Each structure stands twice: as C-alpha cells, then as structure tokens.
C-alpha cells in the first residue's frame, strides 16, 4: 500500500512538473534570500537563460537592470503579510524586457506583462517562498492602447477645423463659455480677439476657392504661431477667426493682435504660380464684470472688428463701452 501511494505521489509530481514547464506563463519561485528555486520553460525561452543557470542565483545577478528596489518591496510585503501582491502593465509596463512574440505586427517590440506574487507556505504555515507569475498581456495592452489612441484622435477631430487644424466653432464656443464663467468667479483679466481677412471674397472670385483655402491655411498658421500654449485659437467660420487669451488684459491682447497683423501683412502667400498678399482687421474685447453672457463678450469684440473695418481695414480696434 505504501509503495502504491509513493508511486502515485511520484506520478502526481511528474505531471505537476510537466504542467509548470509547459504553461504559457512565467513561473519563478524565490526563497527569502531571493534565490531562484524554480525557473520554468517560459522564462527559459524568453530570457535565454536555462533553468540550470538560473537555479540558486538571484534575479539581481541575472538581471542587473531590473527595478530591484520596487520588486523587493513587493516581495517583503508578501513574506510579511502572507497575502498576494499584484502589478498590472498599466502600473508598470513590464518587469522583464522580453521581446514580443510579434515585434513587427504586434505594435510593440517588448512584451507587456502583468505580475502576481503568490505566497507559498511551508508545513509551519509560514510563507517560506514566493511564486512570481509573469503573464504576457501584450495583445490586450496593444488593443487597449490603440483604442485609446483612436478615441483621442476622434475627440481631437471632433473639436478641430479640418482645413486650418484650429479649434472649430463649436468647441471654441465651449472654451469661451468656460473662460467667461471662470473670469466671473475669479474677477481675472481675460481678452478675446476676433478678426477676418480683408476683401477675402475678391481673392475667391479672382483666383478661385483653392487659392482662397491656401490663404486661410496661411492665416491659421500665423495665428497658431502667435498664440501661446494657454490660448485658444479657432476658426469661427469662413474667413473669420478668433483667439481667446486667458489672464490677458486689453494691452496684452493688443500686442498679440498687432503682432499677428504685421506678420501677415509682411507674408507672401504662394499658390501655384500666384503670389498673394492679404491683410486682416481685428477687434478686441476684454472681460468686464458687467457682461451678462459669453455671447455678449463676443459681440463686443465683433463690434470692435466692424470699427476697424469702417476705419479703413488692416488695423486693430478695442471695444469702447
């Protein structure tokens, strides 16, 4: 009977060893001194280190570049508490710099990994070893990252004017409403500029809409180069553009407007065999506590724009209450 039981235990052990070696998960068993007691085929295949080389070595010896301080904190917690610990690829992309199965088509040269650290208890019910499981989650990680990238691009496209790559009218108006509410609460100084291209209809009628589009793109390029990272440049419609400047008084907005106006005036726009030159007229309105809405704020800037046009174009006017 004892022989039969011993044979059964040996068979069970044999099957268990085979399973540990063939499972598509990295398995490493570490003792309290950090020595490797088990190194399965997954780890052999991806690291290039054979089991005989790894056994009784430490990870620090085999992989000097690992985040050993971070890993040791994880191991210490498992040994002390006797509870599992985890790390996902979103927290740390990988522990081991293993090559991906599909480095060319999989979207990542290196493997993304989830980790589980399981306590292994001895006969005294105390944690004497830790089993480190390394899961290859590259496919799921790449899919999620690609989805996030696609969603971010869709969000960008939903708020971007296709011709100019400036904010479109809908999104820019949302920014204006938010800035209006913020300025109301804080009492800060903010300004907005609205401008359009002088005699733009003549450009379209004389040279065609393709030439007109090139002019609009060049104006947008100058607007982007003039705006700061904290500003909100937008295309309001047709040849009309807007620039929202948070925390900027009228004097600062005037400097920005004049810089853009002079830069465009000096610019020669090339389209096919044409060399075009255009100017812009600009209106500025700064936030005032008596404003009742963001729309009224914009209307004041629009009134200043018409003052600039009526005064002869190619100039900037401030709204005067």
Automatic annotation (TrEMBL):
Q: Where's the PAS domain?
A: 12-82
Q: Which SMART domains match?
A: GGDEF, PAS
Instruction: Report the record's Gene Ontology biological process terms.
Output: cell adhesion involved in single-species biofilm formation; negative regulation of bacterial-type flagellum-dependent cell motility; regulation of DNA-templated transcription
Q: Identify the EC number(s).
A: 2.7.7.65
Cofactor(s) required, per the database record: Mg(2+)
Q: Which GO terms describe its cellular component?
A: plasma membrane
- Coiled-coil parts of chain: none
The cross-references to Pfam families, in alphabetical order and at most eight, read: GGDEF, PAS
Q: What class of enzyme is it?
A: transferase
PROSITE patterns referenced in this protein's UniProt entry, alphabetically: GGDEF, PAS
A GO molecular function assigned to this protein is:
diguanylate cyclase activity
GGDEF domain residues are 188-321
Membrane-crossing ranges are none
Q: Which PANTHER family match?
A: DIGUANYLATE CYCLASE DGCC-RELATED (PTHR45138:SF24), REGULATORY COMPONENTS OF SENSORY TRANSDUCTION SYSTEM (PTHR45138)
Task: Name the NCBIfam families on file.
Answer: GGDEF (TIGR00254), sensory_box (TIGR00229)
User: Could you tell me what this protein is called?
Assistant: diguanylate cyclase
